[in-house]
Specification:
Elements lengths: L2 H18 L4 E3 L2 E3 L1 H30 L7 H9 L2 H28 L7 H47 L8 E5 L2 E5 L7 H14 L1
Antiparallel strand pairs: 1-2, 3-4
Helix pairs in contact: 1-2, 2-5, 4-5
């Protein structure tokens, strides 16, 4: 529900971004330029968010026993560790910083004056999208690790729950003088009460 639409949306965004990076594209009377690349990068961010949400939702469902753990997802879960998420997110964030630095250098060479809007929007959009995607990747990795840690805690404490269980024994009842008295297990009545109970049973018979 989330994986395939997200992958398709992100793929379309990547294709549009790659096509528009060198410059504008004219399709008939339509001119695709800076505004279109903004929408393309937004499609990448939304598609990536949908894919990461799929990973978190599937991991939570498997941990709670709502869905079976398929072999493919098990391999994917072992591959997507928090360390790899953090490394990938840090690399994307660093790429965004480098692009922002390049835009700043170009602005310095222009004497901090006006720049070509069609060019500077590419630098700004790519830098912002890369940094946002990097932070999103890191936070998703930590969230998945929290879900894995909760599952390990539940599995580790499950056997201890049976050790604390107390076996319930049925309560015994005795009659004394026409009254009903509940006796707890292991508490035998005194001899006088046992004799009274025996007499009560004989009278009832």
């Amino acid at each position: 529900m989330f994986l395939y639409p997200g992958a398709a949306l992100a793929g379309l965004g990547v294709l549009l971004t790659a096509a528009l990076l060198p410059g504008s594209i004219a399709i008939g009377s339509c001119q695709l330029d800076g505004a279109t690349i903004l929408f393309a990068l937004a499609a990448i961010l939304v598609g990536a968010q949908m894919g990461m949400f799929y990973l978190v939702a599937r991991l939570h469902s498997v941990s709670e026993g709502l869905l079976p753990a398929s072999p493919r997802f098990s391999r994917m879960q072992h591959a997507f560790t928090v360390d790899r998420f953090c490394i990938a997110g840090a690399v994307m964030f660093a790429v965004g910083l480098v692009i922002a630095g390049a835009a700043l250098v170009r602005w310095m060479h222009a004497g901090f004056g006006d720049l070509d809007p069609s060019l500077i929007v590419r630098f700004a959009a790519l830098s912002t999208a890369a940094m946002a995607l990097g932070v999103q990747t890191i936070t998703t990795g930590f969230l998945m690790e929290l879900i894995r840690g909760r599952k390990q805690v539940v599995v580790a404490t499950a056997p201890n729950a049976h050790e604390g269980e107390v076996e319930e024994k049925p309560e015994a009842a005795s009659f004394e003088g026409g009254g009903l008295e509940i006796l707890q297990p292991g508490n035998d009545p005194p001899p006088s009460k046992r004799n009274g109970a025996a007499k009560s049973r004989s009278v009832l018979c």
